[in-house]
Design a protein that fits this description.
By secondary structure, the protein is α/β, with parallel strands linked by helices. The chain is 55% helix and 15% strand. It has one domain: Rossmann fold.
């Protein structure tokens, strides 16, 4: 069993697309923290923020990170996951963190 791989980066940088390809190539499972949040709450990010504010959403986001963490997984995180120091520390302690980036004009186009 191998430690999980966390993909971080801005929204639209390719975390989901690259994460799915990487997981398939490595024989790992792929997870997306935003998708997990929706599956467990039935709410979109926008709905959660509207109902609970950013602080409430960020708490759920942190819980989602912990819930999906397991060996042999590639995990695409929400773009703001790294805003919380506890999330950055957790990912470094549990596995490998890979930062994906793209030029601003590419991100804006997506």
């Amino acid at each position: 069993m191998s430690s999980p791989i966390y993909l971080i980066g801005a929204r639209g940088c390719g975390k989901t697309t690259i994460g799915q390809a990487l997981a398939q190539a490595m024989g790992f499972l792929f997870c997306d923290t935003d998708h997990h949040l929706y599956e467990t709450t039935g709410k979109t990010v926008a709905e959660m923020v509207a109902e609970e504010g950013w602080q409430g959403f960020r708490q759920h986001e942190s819980e989602s990170l912990i819930a999906v963490t397991a060996p042999d997984r590639v995990i695409a995180t929400g773009g703001g996951m790294i805003l919380a120091e506890k999330n950055r520390r957790f990912m470094r302690e549990q596995g490998t963190v890979i930062y994906l980036c793209a030029p601003a004009e590419v991100l804006a186009g997506r």
